[in-house]
């Protein structure tokens, strides 16, 4: 079956890991406490505060305790959906203020534009919230790239190392998994996608190989039409 859609990871794949760890995480760590204090009564933020209480098992945690929990989760890079949602809100303010610009590798920008022109549908699957994904691509150093994408998926579709997550995504896209190409820099994610029936390409931008998967160092080396 020919490839009809391309599903890509962000961190380490389209974008530098250092952008997340050296720019986004420190920004969230610095600005999240005051953001939560200032917006705690707003429905969207209040819902995430409740989710933090539930996930942490601290149902009676006050706002300051919730902030401490969130900062601990940032420090441990915990993939908590509530944390990702709140980080996305903080980052949105930073992007709007011009304090943040999303990093996307130039080879990824060029390839995504070329693939879109060739008729491939493009999707994103990242552990970061859908809001955060749209911000990285919408406020990128290369301009607004969101028109290239047909949809976004995050951990609400399931964890990235579980095959069922990729089955859900294929169903949401409306294609057999065999017609979806998944790109990532993490072998366990590639394994899970393959178990679901997707085709895979591994990105190893600094060299090396992702065992069991065709591995390249640049998007320029990927030709979906030839698969």
Task: Describe it.
By secondary structure, the protein is of the alpha/beta class. It folds into two domains: 5-16 and 103-226, HAD superfamily/HAD-like (Rossmann fold, 3-Layer(aba) Sandwich), CATH 3.40.50; 19-96, Transcription Termination Factor Rho, Rna-binding Domain, Chain A, Domain 1. The protein contains eight helices and six strands; from the N terminus they run βαααααβαβαβαββ. It has helices at residues 17-39, 43-56, 63-75, 81-96, 106-117, 130-138, 163-173, 187-195, and strands at 5-8, 121-125, 149-153, 180-184, 199-203, 215-216. It has a six-stranded parallel sheet, sandwiched between helices. β4 (180-184), α8 (187-195) and β5 form a beta-alpha-beta unit. α2 (43-56) packs across α3 (63-75) and α7 (163-173) crosses α8. The longest helix is centred in the first third of the chain and has 23 residues, at 17-39. It is globular and about 55 Å long. The relative contact order is 0.17. The mean pLDDT is 95.
Question: How would you concisely characterize the structure shown here?
Answer:
This protein has two domains: 136 residues, Rossmann fold; 78 residues, Orthogonal Bundle (Transcription Termination Factor Rho, Rna-binding Domain, Chain A, Domain 1). The chain contains eight helices and six strands; from the N terminus they run E-H-H-H-H-H-E-H-E-H-E-H-E-E.
Task: Please specify the SSE layout and strand pairing.
Blueprint: E1 5-8, H1 17-39, H2 43-56, H3 63-75, H4 81-96, H5 106-117, E2 121-125, H6 130-138, E3 149-153, H7 163-173, E4 180-184, H8 187-195, E5 199-203, E6 215-216
Parallel strand pairs: 1-2, 1-4, 2-3, 4-5, 5-6
Helix pairs in contact: 1-3, 1-4, 2-3, 2-4, 4-6, 7-8
């Amino acid at each position: 079956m020919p490839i009809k859609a391309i599903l890509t990871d962000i961190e380490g794949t389209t974008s530098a890991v250092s952008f997340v760890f050296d720019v986004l995480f420190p920004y969230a760590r610095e600005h999240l406490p005051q953001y939560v204090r200032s917006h705690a009564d707003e429905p969207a933020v209040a819902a995430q505060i409740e989710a933090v209480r539930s996930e942490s098992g601290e149902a009676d945690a006050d706002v300051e305790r919730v902030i401490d929990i969130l900062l601990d989760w940032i420090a441990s890079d915990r993939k908590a959906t509530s944390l990702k949602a709140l980080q996305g809100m903080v980052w949105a303010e930073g992007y709007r203020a011009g304090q943040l610009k999303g990093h996307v590798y130039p080879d990824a920008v060029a390839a995504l534009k070329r693939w879109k022109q060739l008729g491939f549908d493009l999707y994103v699957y990242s552990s970061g919230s859908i809001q955060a994904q749209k911000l990285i691509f919408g406020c990128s150093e290369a301009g607004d790239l969101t028109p290239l994408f047909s949809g976004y998926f995050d951990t609400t579709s399931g964890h990235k190392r579980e095959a069922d997550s990729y089955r859900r995504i294929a169903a949401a896209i409306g294609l057999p998994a065999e017609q979806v190409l998944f790109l990532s820099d993490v072998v366990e994610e590639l394994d899970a996608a393959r178990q679901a029936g997707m085709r895979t390409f591994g990105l190893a931008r600094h060299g090396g190989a992702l065992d069991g998967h065709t591995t390249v160092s640049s998007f320029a080396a990927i030709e979906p039409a030839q698969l």
